[in-house]
Amino acid sequence: MQKRNRFWWVIPFIIGILLWGVWSVVFSSTPLKEGSQAPDFTLPGSDGNTYRLSDFRGKRVVLMFYPKSNTPGCTAQNCAVRDQYDQLSQHAVVFGISVDTPETQTQFAKQHNLKHIVLADADGKVAEAYGVRTTAGFASRTTFIIAPDGTIEKVFEKAGTSNHPEELLSYFRASAQQGTAEKPEIGKRVPNFTLPNVNPREGLPKEVTLYDIKDKKAIVIIYIATRCPVSLDYDERMANLAKEYADKGVLFLGINSNHIEPASEVAEHAQKKGFIFPVLKDEGNKVADMYDAKVTPEVFVVDSNFVLRYHGRIDDSQNPNRVSQRDLKNALDAILAGKEPPVKETRAFGCTIKRVQR
Predict the structure, then answer these.
(1) 352 conformational bin, left if phi > 0, alpha if psi -120 to 50, beta if neither
(2) Is 228 designated active site?
(3) pLDDT given for residue 22 in this prediction
(4) Is the pLDDT of residue 1 over 60?
């Protein structure tokens, strides 16, 4: 009899485990879905500074939740990100985040020479807002990629540890390839790019990354040329518009994608015409291909979230004395007034962009 009842306790133990598992599934949080708005937050970082998510609007942000600093898996994950930080930072701002205290995060980052900032969500409220706080009170190993417009672009619900940088980089590369295949559309975010500035005017940057531009209500991207007679006839109008709207929160960017016009010629032209804005050299017309730009001049106007609001011509006549429709000016005035441009798309006219032969 004693032998038969020896393991009587096993049955209720197993039942308890099963009930706990069911309870965890039913009552645990669910991560926010792709496309939803990312909850804003303010948290202390491992470097002693305070970080607010909305301050990074206009940039991609990697928000990497992990259970606890100084544990094997979390240490491996953060060290792997450290080792590939230079590549990752080309695509996004990278943050780690766990429910540890600010003191723990500072010590953790210092001990492992982390290049990215780890944030201290000590009370777990941010993890809860993102739906990743577990029943044990920790954050699950979930990574969110936040798009420049503040929405959740991608969710890794079961992020890797030592291989997580490869997961992120693979996604970024695939996303970039997909982006180049899609033409910019009114109402959608345009592709990012980084190009050298060849206009040597004092105060202008040596390089421009579109998504790094902040505090602008609108950005006017114009494909221009040094030898196209149509583009040349618009040089004075472009220069004047850039000056007129400079103090209104509008930045002009000129892009030269013609392979027959060398950077030195483009730089000399920018100086001669008195362009106060960056003039970027698109070697190999890669950016022109991304934007499906066809002629010079051709205009793309984006708002502060890099969403395309107007595309087409500057106005309706190469001859300034015959202009009756000032499409670019009308679009800018509407955007600055918080309205939709009266005409969102027109047909650009000019010289075809002289592309390289592939």
Answers:
(1) beta
(2) no
(3) 41
(4) no
Domains 30-181 and 194-352 alike in fold: yes
Where does the chain have alpha helices with state H? 10-27, 72-83, 85-88, 102-111, 125-129, 164-181, 229-233, 235-245, 263-273, 286-291, 327-336
pLDDT single digits (tens) 266-282: 999 999 999 999 999 99
In the chain, what are the domain boundaries? 30-181, 194-352
76 token code pair: 């491996």
CATH number of 194-352: 3.40.30.10
Kindly name the residue from 74, 79, 228, 351 that is annotated as catalytic: 74
Three-state secondary structure readout of 273-336: HCCCCCEEECHHHHHHHHHCCCEECEEEEEECCCEEEEEECCCCCCCHHHCCCCHHHHHHHHHH
Encoding tokens for residue 355? 């592309």
Specify the pLDDT at position 11: 57
Output the six-digit token pair for 32. Answer: 């926010």
The fold of the 30-181 domain, in CATH, is Glutaredoxin (3.40.30)
